[in-house]
Design a protein that fits this description.
With 125 residues, this protein is mainly alpha-helical. The protein folds into two domains: 36 residues; 77 residues, no CATH class. The chain contains six helices and no strands. Helix 2 packs across helix 3, helix 3 crosses helix 5 and helix 3 packs parallel to helix 6. It is elongated, with a radius of gyration of 23 Å. It starts with a helix and ends with a helix.
């Protein structure tokens, strides 16, 4: 039985199933796109290949611009204080942020903690 014959026999049911499949596909594509932006934007924006390095770069740039981290949590303020003495021309490796995040949340992977803090710094400032 071809799809045209199924549509003639049950036009409403066939159209509904096609719409629901389209909706599911759209949901999957949108979800993937949101994850891609959330995990890829910090790296592409700063031209860096690691989330902890991107976090350090973001904090150093904001420190150089004189931005206050008062609206962020204590762990972000502590990390900003650790990086406050870093000159903008120094190459960042992500080690300070990696150690700080690992010490704050030992059960959370450091790369994921760096992503979370990157977005908290970006949105909170």
């Amino acid at each position: 039985m071809s799809s045209r014959d199924r549509w003639r026999e049950h036009p409403v049911e066939y159209r509904t199933s096609r719409r629901s499949r389209r909706g599911q596909s759209l949901t999957v594509v949108l979800g993937f796109g949101i994850l891609l932006v959330a995990f890829g934007l910090p790296l592409l924006r700063d031209g860096i290949w690691g989330p902890c390095t991107a976090l350090e770069g973001r904090i150093v740039a904001l420190n150089a611009a004189g931005v206050s981290f008062a609206r962020n949590g204590q762990d972000i303020r502590t990390l900003a204080g650790l990086l406050a003495w870093t000159r903008p021309d120094v190459e960042l490796t992500g080690g300070v942020a990696h150690r700080h995040v690992s010490a704050q949340d030992p059960l959370l992977p450091a790369w994921f903690g760096c992503y979370l803090r990157y977005w908290r710094v970006t949105i909170g400032v």
